[in-house]
Amino acid sequence: MSVSLRLSRGGSKKRPYYKIVIANSRAPRDGKYLEQVGTYNPLLAKDDANRVRLVEDRVRYWIGVGAQPTDRVARLLDKAGIVERPATNNPNKAEPGKKAKDRAEDKAKKAEEAAEAAAAAAAAPAPEPEPVVEEVAEVEAEETPAAEAVAEEAPAVEAVAEETPAAEAAAEEAPAAEAASEEQAEG
Q: How far apart are CA 17 and CA 11, in angstroms?
């Protein structure tokens, strides 16, 4: 039969209170125990004297007999100065897990691709904005005298009907001329 020095939980929901007990290692956590050797109240301040109360001579006896303290009880006993607990060293404590590392790599890859795309966009010459406003103004200037002459000859309704096809034809010619001039500039 192996004996352990461990905590047995009591108290109510969200208000824990623990007994430090000597129990069979196979017994349930809050089940039957051999002896109670102290109490632990985690709700009290860390410097409070009643936070951990131990019957020191009984603890020493059970440890001498071979009772093994759980990690938490070993910490409490170390603070009380009853048992020395060896310092633990976990060099990977602050290191992120595998999935977090994978997510970080993916994020770095996407950021690198975005930076390359931005660099490529900056290296490529930006197309100069075409002076579309000026051409439209020139087309309107050309149509205005013709529209006035038509307006004098025909009634107002017919003048509007004749202006619309002329404006559409001029608008269709302007992009075609621009496309041709761009092809000549590229070639």
A: 5
Q: What range does the domain containing 163 cover?
A: 132-177
Tokens of 59: 């603890």
Q: How many domains does the chain have?
A: 2
Which residues, in sequence order, are CB contacts of 67 under 8 Å at separation 6+?
3, 4, 5, 22
What string of pLDDT tens digits covers the 187 residues of the chain?
789 999 999 999 999 999 999 999 898 988 889 999 999 999 999 999 899 999 999 999 999 999 999 999 999 999 998 888 887 888 888 888 899 999 999 999 999 999 988 888 888 765 666 655 555 555 555 555 555 555 555 554 454 445 555 555 555 555 555 555 555 555 5
Give me the residue label for tokens 């006035």: 148
- For residue 94, give both structure tokens: 């602050």
pTM, full prediction: 0.49
Say if 147 falls within a structural domain.
Answer: yes
What are the backbone angles phi and psi of residue 116, rounded to the nearest 5°? -65, -40
- Domain boundary (80, 115, 140) is at 80
Does the residue 42 lie in any domain? yes
